[in-house]
Amino acid sequence: MTDFPWLLTMIAVPAVGAAVVAALPRGREETAKQAALGVSLLVLLLAVLATVAFDAGGERFQLTTSVPWIPDFGVDFALGVDGIALVMLLLIGVLVPVVVLASWRDEPTGHRSMKTFFAWLLLLESLMVGVFAATDVFLFYVFFEAMLVPMYFLIGSFGGPRRQYAAVKFFLYSLVGGLVMLAAVIGLYVVSAGELGEGTFAFDALRGMEIDPGMQKLLFLGFFVAFAIKAPLVPFHTWLPDSGAEAPIGGSVLLVGVLDKVGTFGFLRYCLPLFPDASRDLAPYVLALAVAGVLYAALLAMGQSDMKRLVSYTSIAHFGFIALGIFAFTTEAATGAVLYMVNHGIATGLLFLVVGMLIARGGSRQVGDYGGVAAQAPLLAGVFLVAGLASLALPGTNSFVSEFLVLIGSFPTRPVFTVLATVGIVLAALYVLLLYQRTMHGPPRGVLLEPSPETSAPATGGGGGATAATATLEAPPPAPARLRVRDLSRRELAVAAPMVALVIALGVYPQPLIDLIEPAVAATMSDVGADPAGVSPEAPVEGTD
Amino acid sequence: MDTAPADGLITSAWLLIALPLAGAAVLLLGGRRTDRWGHLLGTGTVVAAFVLGLLCTLQLDGRRLDVDLFTFVATGSLDVQAGLLFDPLSAVFVLLITGVGALIHVYSIGYMAHDPRRRRFFAYLNLFVAAMLLLVLGDNFVALYVGWEGVGLASYLLIAFWHERPSAATAAKKAFIMNRVGDVGLALAIFLMFAQLGTVSYDGVFGAVGTLAGGTVTAIGLLLLLGACGKSGQFPLQAWLPDAMEGPTPVSALIHAATMVTAGVYLIARCAPVYDATPTARAAVLAVGAITLMIGAIAGCAQDDIKKVLAYSTVSQIGYMFLAVGLGPVGYVAGLAHLLTHGFFKAGLFLGAGSVMHAMDDDVDMRRFGGLASRMKVTFVTFGLGYLALIGFPFLSGFYTKDAIIEAAFDRGDGWGYLLGGIAILAAGLTAFYMTRLMLMTFFGRPRWEPGVHPHESPSVMTAPMVLLAVGSVLAGFLLVVAFPLEEWLTPVFGEPEAAEHVVAPLVVSILVTVVMALGVLTAWLFVGRREVPVTAPVRVSPVTRAARRALYADAVNESLFMRPGQWLTRALVFVDNRGVDGAVNGLAATLGGSSSRLGRTQTGFVRSYALSMLGGAVVVAGALLAVTAG
């Protein structure tokens, strides 16, 4: 079973699926949806089978395929996964069918057709698999850049009112990052030509090189900037709230759930092993950005009135935790960071999905346009709460395990940064519960309100003020306000149920994933000179960072 | 004393948690289909857990038994096992949680009978019991933390149970947030233990406390204390607990009086080996206890809401428990004994208050009560017994356990001992005052009922648990202190009790406390009982009363120190992020590629072709550069 080209198949299947869906005649929207769902479920099956074929205790890179691609420059079409990449493939496998199902009833804006939407979605899946499966740096770069194209169209063609602005902003930011990385990729090739006698892009060959410290720093920064834009660290983050808010819900889920993880994945796969000295030297600065992001983005999330922007800001805070875990250089923290990448995709993905379900009912993204939904739609509110609790990393949900690992693993080497980040857990509770209280609790209110038959509401979004005002009028008290809101449909339950199940299952029994992830993390830690066996107790705690 | 692997029935101690958890899962996932019998299932699982807990306790025989379940998280040198510790200390808590929990479940069948969401109420109560049992049964700090935040979730869900009421929704959020502030302390303590000792299990940490530097032990002790303050509503994190009374009254009885809020006391008692090694952290526990017991007692004197009086009383009584465990080895047992008797009488008092509210159409303002003694005889008698137990009436529960704490304080023998003992006695007088005031305003005097209110006794499904808790309130103190001393039961945990050298003879303490208590009762009678109670609260009152009504301005301080600056900061940052950070980057883009406003209006066609050609362009550039290099 190990000889089967799993990864190549996982790239090819959705790519072919995308072509087929795109080639369907106009008006075959239903067929397009069904085909997209079928293809994405097939990829999920492949990801699961690939995981079965993967031996957690074996070689680092498995399921490898390699064919020469541009032999003149030593570029191979080389694929292979370690545990880190594998769990990301599983995440992709889970999220795409969920996203397809969640977008089932989306109405295209303008003259676009949903057929195109699903075609772009499948192409995106193919490229996302490629970017995690590439073991050739140049191939990685190609996937990294190519991924932008379908996402650009998903935002720009199928997004909200300001989709053009958001799509262009997304594109320009990514382009700048990508170009800087291209320079670094080429630089790396040149260095490898000098070091190894022959230029190469093969990750395993590049890993063992001794690069001059000054050069290391330059190359590190080249990769780092691209990745820090992708998994936005403050201050490279301002494109994400726009993209996250304007993208169609399915796009937002894949954007923060998977696409942005390429950044944190890149830190771990490329920055640390290829430039260990630079990573060590520059870690304090990265950590400062990471922790600043945890606190700054959480405060900003609290101040948002647009729900999708709010969720985007929470993601920036979460990326801060992930970066902290990676640059703390302990096996515990980095394992936690990888687990965080998976868990965040599930938890924040679910939060985006349920926010999307609410927006689909009310037609507004504004927090202030909703209120008291829990009384009328308990299932919707329940899923919202589970997603929110996972976002604030409550024990019992998957996110707790990863956040806890990041923090407990970072504390021994970086106590000051960790203490500051831990304050973030209070802020997370605030932004989640404020959002939940405003939309779900309280008296019925907002755009979902059924207009009262006898007295028309005094003003839109009257809320508490209106009740006080009408009490003084001579008119009899109006009939109690009611919301006109459907609870979750069967399709929406089918979207939410597997995600909720994963949130809880991975919160209670995360060890199987940890067993997959840890060997690759340990190898990375030894690359940067940290003890792969983890923190040793009574290690002298550095007083200051 | 080391732990041994569990045997016999105790190997199935995990069922204690699994039963109520399964109940919660069935009720939440089953939906409306379970509406008809959901409350019975919810009650049944807790009763079953109580029976199992009792049988396990009977088999325990003073041992400390470990139940290993599965590997929760293991990576690097961190190894967190999902394991349970069944020892005399956790057994006591299991019995309290499941015993009082079962009674309150039964009571809730009647109390929530007409609520359309009763099934969900029982689901949340079951969830609470499961989380609370995990909290006290876990054999390591991570399991404790999971239970710790789990009960916080259950508390949130139950305070916000009537979430249409904005006050309930806000109170729930406030409780969760203030608890999380405490949780940061608990989390950091765990991180510190792992960094220093490489383990988070009780055995590992407690066995190695001696190897740690003094400052580290103190830091761990203080961080744990912060966690304990959050969960137990202690100064400076006490302000959430009175607001939590927004929840249905059975919740106030179970979670916000008898069990969850005493988790802080459990934490400190469980971590006795840490606190024994750090006098500084112990002193901090003492200070927190002494300050809080006074704050609670003073605020309790000026409340008109019957549940708020009981809530501040809870704050104050937990202050006594903190004071006790802060005294170190002489106080652990005294604090835990008071925790248990308090569990009985305070749960009983809350259930009685719920019965009164039931009769008064859910009114909570005692100024509109009065003269209920004759209308609700069972409620009056059971509440009255709980009242006597709480104020320390001789030979009832509170008399034994509160006196033991005061004696232990005096036994310090130094000036601090006298100060703490004096504060505790003074607060005992205040306790007698506010509770007598509550009794007089509720059950005696002329009825001041709102028109249309027809008080009636509650159904027996509610009064039966009240009767049982009243019996407990009367007997528990005698049983735990004299008949079957808790001290002996807990010897395997805290070691042999030292023969205390009494600085002040126990008899003298008892007489002194009883006299002060009587003074409190008398004062209440003079100020409340002899006069007509005004139906609306007097406005022109002394500054002291005003301060007491507002609980010494705790909310005002929190708002002006944290909430408003926080809101201001958030607003400022949103402005900066939109104008500053984003603006700077857009400005940069503008200088590179045209004006930033044009960025937004860029023609679709242009960008699209740009996007499609980008990949090709990049490859061409790369190719050219490579050609140069290779050439």
Automatic annotation (TrEMBL), chain A:
<dbReference type="InterPro" id="IPR001750">
    <property type="entry name" value="ND/Mrp_TM"/>
</dbReference>
<keyword id="KW-0812">Transmembrane</keyword>
<keyword id="KW-1133">Transmembrane helix</keyword>
<feature type="transmembrane region" description="Helical">
    <location>
        <begin position="492"/>
        <end position="509"/>
    </location>
</feature>
<feature type="domain" description="NADH:quinone oxidoreductase/Mrp antiporter transmembrane">
    <location>
        <begin position="134"/>
        <end position="427"/>
    </location>
</feature>
<dbReference type="GO" id="GO:0015990">
    <property type="term" value="P:electron transport coupled proton transport"/>
</dbReference>
<dbReference type="GO" id="GO:0008137">
    <property type="term" value="F:NADH dehydrogenase (ubiquinone) activity"/>
</dbReference>
<feature type="transmembrane region" description="Helical">
    <location>
        <begin position="282"/>
        <end position="303"/>
    </location>
</feature>
<dbReference type="InterPro" id="IPR003918">
    <property type="entry name" value="NADH_UbQ_OxRdtase"/>
</dbReference>
<dbReference type="Pfam" id="PF00361">
    <property type="entry name" value="Proton_antipo_M"/>
</dbReference>
<feature type="transmembrane region" description="Helical">
    <location>
        <begin position="6"/>
        <end position="24"/>
    </location>
</feature>
<protein>
    <submittedName>
        <fullName>NADH dehydrogenase subunit M</fullName>
    </submittedName>
</protein>
<feature type="transmembrane region" description="Helical">
    <location>
        <begin position="310"/>
        <end position="331"/>
    </location>
</feature>
<feature type="transmembrane region" description="Helical">
    <location>
        <begin position="252"/>
        <end position="270"/>
    </location>
</feature>
<feature type="transmembrane region" description="Helical">
    <location>
        <begin position="416"/>
        <end position="436"/>
    </location>
</feature>
<feature type="transmembrane region" description="Helical">
    <location>
        <begin position="140"/>
        <end position="158"/>
    </location>
</feature>
<feature type="transmembrane region" description="Helical">
    <location>
        <begin position="170"/>
        <end position="191"/>
    </location>
</feature>
<dbReference type="GO" id="GO:0048039">
    <property type="term" value="F:ubiquinone binding"/>
</dbReference>
<feature type="transmembrane region" description="Helical">
    <location>
        <begin position="77"/>
        <end position="104"/>
    </location>
</feature>
<keyword id="KW-0472">Membrane</keyword>
<dbReference type="GO" id="GO:0003954">
    <property type="term" value="F:NADH dehydrogenase activity"/>
</dbReference>
<feature type="transmembrane region" description="Helical">
    <location>
        <begin position="116"/>
        <end position="134"/>
    </location>
</feature>
TrEMBL record, chain B:
<feature type="transmembrane region" description="Helical">
    <location>
        <begin position="144"/>
        <end position="163"/>
    </location>
</feature>
<feature type="transmembrane region" description="Helical">
    <location>
        <begin position="378"/>
        <end position="396"/>
    </location>
</feature>
<feature type="transmembrane region" description="Helical">
    <location>
        <begin position="37"/>
        <end position="60"/>
    </location>
</feature>
<feature type="transmembrane region" description="Helical">
    <location>
        <begin position="12"/>
        <end position="30"/>
    </location>
</feature>
<dbReference type="GO" id="GO:0008137">
    <property type="term" value="F:NADH dehydrogenase (ubiquinone) activity"/>
</dbReference>
<feature type="transmembrane region" description="Helical">
    <location>
        <begin position="336"/>
        <end position="357"/>
    </location>
</feature>
<feature type="transmembrane region" description="Helical">
    <location>
        <begin position="184"/>
        <end position="202"/>
    </location>
</feature>
<feature type="transmembrane region" description="Helical">
    <location>
        <begin position="416"/>
        <end position="440"/>
    </location>
</feature>
<dbReference type="InterPro" id="IPR003945">
    <property type="entry name" value="NU5C-like"/>
</dbReference>
<dbReference type="Pfam" id="PF00361">
    <property type="entry name" value="Proton_antipo_M"/>
</dbReference>
<feature type="transmembrane region" description="Helical">
    <location>
        <begin position="208"/>
        <end position="230"/>
    </location>
</feature>
<keyword id="KW-0472">Membrane</keyword>
<dbReference type="InterPro" id="IPR001750">
    <property type="entry name" value="ND/Mrp_TM"/>
</dbReference>
<feature type="transmembrane region" description="Helical">
    <location>
        <begin position="610"/>
        <end position="630"/>
    </location>
</feature>
<feature type="transmembrane region" description="Helical">
    <location>
        <begin position="251"/>
        <end position="269"/>
    </location>
</feature>
<dbReference type="Pfam" id="PF00662">
    <property type="entry name" value="Proton_antipo_N"/>
</dbReference>
<feature type="transmembrane region" description="Helical">
    <location>
        <begin position="281"/>
        <end position="302"/>
    </location>
</feature>
<feature type="transmembrane region" description="Helical">
    <location>
        <begin position="504"/>
        <end position="528"/>
    </location>
</feature>
<feature type="transmembrane region" description="Helical">
    <location>
        <begin position="89"/>
        <end position="109"/>
    </location>
</feature>
<feature type="transmembrane region" description="Helical">
    <location>
        <begin position="461"/>
        <end position="484"/>
    </location>
</feature>
<feature type="transmembrane region" description="Helical">
    <location>
        <begin position="309"/>
        <end position="330"/>
    </location>
</feature>
<dbReference type="InterPro" id="IPR001516">
    <property type="entry name" value="Proton_antipo_N"/>
</dbReference>
